[in-house]
Amino acid sequence: MIRTELGLSYTEAGIVISAFAITGGISQLPAGWLADRLGSRLMVLLGVTGVAVTGLMLSQSQSYLTLIIFLVLAALLGGGYHPAASSAISSLVPGERRGRALGTHMIGGSSCFWVVPLLAAPIAAAIGWRNSYLILSIPAIILGVLLYILIGKRSRITENNQTTLDTSVPKTREQIPWRQLIPFVLLSVVTGTVIQSVSAYLSLYAVDHLHIAEQTAAMLMAISPGVGLFAAPMGGYLADRFGGMPVLVVASILAIPLVYILGLATNALSLVIIMILIGLVSFTRMPTSEAFIAGHTPQHRRSTILGFYFFAGAEVSGLLTPVVGNLIDRYGFSQSFTIASVTLGVATALCLLVLWRNRALTVSYK
C-alpha cells in the first residue's frame, strides 16, 4: 500500500526497508557496549517505547523522504533492545537451559510479527496505512513503560538474592574460542540475511506475480512469524539437546533449496507452504545462534559481542535487500530468487569449510 501510494520501484521499496535495517545494525554496536555498562533497563525502554513513539511520527509522514527519516530514528532507538535483552536472559539461567530461555523470549517477537500484519492490514484497508502506525503505536508506548517498571522491581529482587543467583549461573569461559565463534556467526548471519532480504519482497511478490489482493498479501506476512511461536522454543530446545553448531548447520543447508523454490510458487497455497518451512528454519536459527554466542563469551562482554552479531545481521540484510530489489527490477522474481539461493549455497559451503578446517564441526559446543 505504501509502495502504491508513493509510486516506488522494487529498488526504492528495498531502500525503505534498508533504512531501518542498516541504521538498526549500526546502533547495535554502541548500544551493546552501553548495555554492558548501564544495564538493560534503559535500553529496553528505548527499544520498546522509543520505537513506538516514532510509530506516531510515521503516521504523519507524507513523503518518501520523511518515511525514511522516521524509520532511521526508530532504528536508532531500537538498536539496544536485543543485545541487552539476550544478555540479561543468558545471565539468569543455567547454561543447559539457555537455548530454551532465549527461544521462549522470541515468542514475544514472533508474536508481534504474527499479530501486527493481521491487525495492520484491515486497519490500513479501511482507513489508510498511516492509521495502522498511529493506532498500533499507542499500546506499545504504554507496554514499554510498564516493562520498564517491572524490570526495576525485578532488579531489586535480584539484588536481594544476589548470592543465590551467583551460584545458579554457571561461570562462562573467559577465553573466547574465536576460531569457532567467528565462522559460526558468519554462517548464521549469511543464512539469516539472505532469508530476510528475499522475504522483504514476498508481499510484493504475492501481489505482482501471484495476483493476490493487497490486504491478503499483507496478512500473509504473518505466516512465517506465526510459525516462530513454536519454532523458536523448539530451536532453543534442540540447541540445548544437541548443541548449537549441528542445529545451525542443518538449518543453513535447508535454507538453500527453500529460497530457490520460492520462485516456483504458482498460487497462494504453495507460497504459504514454503513460507511455513522458511519460518521453521529461520526461527530455529535465531535462538540457536544467540545461545551459542552467549555460552562462549564472558558475561561482562556478552552484550557487546551480541551487539556485533546483531549489527552484522542487520547491516548485511540492509545492504542486500535493495540489491535483491534491483535484481527483481532487472530479471524478475524467479530468477532473482535463484541467484539468492546460489549465493547462499556458495557462502554456506565456504563457512562450513572453515569450520571443518578448524575442527569445529566435530565438537558439540553447547
Secondary-structure blueprint:
Blueprint: H1 2-6, H2 10-38, H3 40-58, H4 64-78, H5 81-92, H6 98-127, H7 129-160, H8 162-168, H9 178-199, H10 202-208, H11 214-220, H12 223-242, H13 244-262, H14 268-295, H15 302-331, H16 333-357
Helix pairs in contact: 2-3, 2-4, 2-5, 2-15, 3-4, 3-5, 3-7, 5-15, 6-7, 6-11, 6-12, 6-14, 9-13, 9-14, 9-15, 9-16, 10-11, 12-13, 12-14, 13-14, 13-16, 15-16
**Gyration radius, rounded:** 20 Å
CATH class: Mainly Alpha
Helix fraction by DSSP (H/I, runs of at least 4): over 70%
How many β-strand runs?
A: 0
| CATH topology-level fold name | Growth Hormone, Chain: A
Number of distinct helices: 16
Largest sheet: none
Structural class: mainly alpha
Description of the molecule:
It is a single chain. The chain has one domain: Growth Hormone, Chain: A. The longest helix has 32 residues, at 129-160. The protein has 16 helices and no strands. With 366 residues, the protein is an all-alpha fold. The protein starts with a helix and ends in a 9-residue tail after the last helix. The model is unreliable at 162-172 (pLDDT under 50).
